[in-house]
Amino acid sequence: MTHIGYHASHEQYDPRTLRDLAIRAEAAGFAAIKCSDHLQPWSERQGHSGHAWAWLGAAMAGTTVPFGNIAAPGYRYHPAVMAQAAATLAQMFPGRFWLAIGTGEALNEGVTGAAWPDKPERNARLRECFDVMHALLRGRSVTHRGRVTVVEARLWSLPDTPPPLFGAAATPETARFLGGWAEGLLTLGGDPVQVARVIDAFREGGGAGKPVHIQHAISWADTQDQAMANALDQWAPVAIGGEINWDIRRPSDFDLLGQFVGPDRIGRAVRVSADPGLHRADLAALADLGADTIFVHNVGRNQEAFIDMAGRDLIG
User: How far is Cα 201 from Cα 199, in angstroms, rounded to an integer?
Assistant: First the structure.
């Protein structure tokens, strides 16, 4: 059975509002919640970027559903510190927390001032960070010298069961790389044919039988025109495509590129429709790929109306 979850976007809402939206989402029937982890928003119009880990403690205390986070270890987060945060949440909220780790974006990780690596180097660093975190979450003492350095690290407050460490992938190549060692896959929604290629690559690379989560971006509103306006206002910079999302450092530069995204291109990244039936059919098609949870991200500012609509027309 595929669960329908709610995506909480730190880029778009202040932490207090986002906590309240998470509580409202559970009340509406969403079975799980995941959040982003940003230091900066994609766009100056989005305008927020609360600390995900601080927020998770408060949001999970006010709810009962499982939560997940996607973050990039090895840059602004040392992997031992990230493992400690994950262990703390998993100990406080048994069985309710999972973490996806990815290779990151310069938008968030460039703040350290270190040179931003190419994708193969980021992949190699991600694997090292996974190994360090996986060992720490099992109570081992870790010393590691490589792309990241860890000296005699050990976590002292551990959960009874370690939280699963998923890998995040947007392409079949990265998904295949993750398959043999990540404990699950987090990928993006959209065209089921394209999503299937990513999931199949993960399974072929060693991920058969492991859980799959999908983050699916939509723009719903009462009218088609408003749904399109919401998508272009909030998500155009993210829809530019290619490698740009991983390499640009400034929200203002994303906004410059977003001016070149129109209704045709935004549709490649966001399902824009005022029809709940179409969104429900999309979720069913993604569920048929074997997803354990699909986290719906409505990119517009109309979150309360979206949550209420989803409770009536999308969930169940």
Answer: 5
Determine the Cα–Cα distance for residues 218 and 237; give it in Å rounded to an integer.
Answer: 15
Question: Is 38 tagged catalytic?
Answer: yes
Alpha-carbon distances, residue 20 vs 14, 45, 134, 279 (angstroms): 10, 21, 32, 24
Residue 226 to residue 231: CA distance in whole angstroms: 9
Instruction: Inform me whether the pLDDT recorded for 240 exceeds 90.
Output: no
In contact, 202 and 169? CB cutoff 8 Å: yes
**HEC profile of the chain:** CCEEEEEECCCCCCHHHHHHHHHHHHHHCCCEEEECCCCCCCCCCCCCCCCHHHHHHHHHHCCCCCEEEEECECCCECHHHHHHHHHHHHHHCCCCEEEEECCCCHHHHHHHCCCCCCHHHHHHHHHHHHHHHHHHCCCCCEEEECCCEEEEECCCCCCCCCCCEEEECCCHHHHHHHHCCCCCEEEECCCHHHHHHHHHHHHHHHHCCCCEEEEEEEECCCCHHHHHHHHHHHHHHHHHCCCHHHHCCCHHHHHHHHCCCCHHHHHHHCEECCCHHHHHHHHHHHHCCCCCEEEEEECCCCHHHHHHHHHHHCCC
Which of 119, 139, 125 lies closest to 77 in space, CA to CA?
Answer: 125
Which of 38, 134, 279, 297 is an active site residue?
38
Instruction: Tell me the pLDDT tens digit for each residue of 241-296.
Output: 778 889 999 999 999 999 999 999 999 999 999 999 999 999 999 999 999 999 99
Q: What tokens appear for 155 in the block?
A: 């976590």
Q: Which of the following is catalytic: 105, 109, 128, 183?
A: 105
